Structures are given as structure tokens and as C-alpha cells.
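## retry 2 of 3
previous attempt timed out at serialization; input unchanged, resubmitting
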Amino acid sequence: TCADPNPSPASLKDFTCTCDKDASVMATGAAATCEVDECSMNPCGMGQSCEDPNTSYGSQHDFVCTCDSDKSITKIDGPATCEKDECSTDPCGAKTNAAPIRVEQGRRVLTLILLRQV
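## retry succeeded, writing output
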């Protein structure tokens, strides 16, 4: 946050920059050196957690994404490649069990598959 106590053209370099997260960190006439939490913008996405081990101003690209489903899968500076069971969302419709039935009609034999919801 910037505050200029005297906006007069004769009064230069008297502005104060203060960090939004820590108002005790400030600088006069220049940008304050604020902490930057790279995880604040959710760079990992859904199904992952983010940790920024060093939030100092000069430390960037060191955040770690970890899969919620498997904490051993991580990646630094980007989303981890998490395993995903594509069938967990039931893309095929209602879960079913197939039960073949043999039906004889005269000389013809048919095999039918009946689906039962489970």
C-alpha cells in the first residue's frame, strides 16, 4: 500500500510503501520488501495442497504441490501429476452388474445380457 503524505510537486520521495500482510514492513521513497506467498493464487489446482517454504521477496518458484490422494506425489513450481481413477465419477452411467441369460426359441439360442443396478 502506498501513502503520500504530501502530494506537492516540491515534496518528492516522501511516499511510504507498506506490505499488505505485515504493516510493520515498510519503506520510504521505494518499494517495501514484502513476503510473497506463491500459494496464495492456488497454483496447484483442485485435489492438491500447496506449500511455499520460503516466502521472502526474492524467493520464487519454490512452492511445492502435493496430491491430496497420495502425499508422496509432489512437484516443485507447478501442479503435481496426481493419479486419478477416471471411473470414480461414474462416467458410464449407473453402476451395473451384467448377468448373461441363455434363452432358447425353437432352434435359435439367444444370449441376453440383463443389467442390474448395484
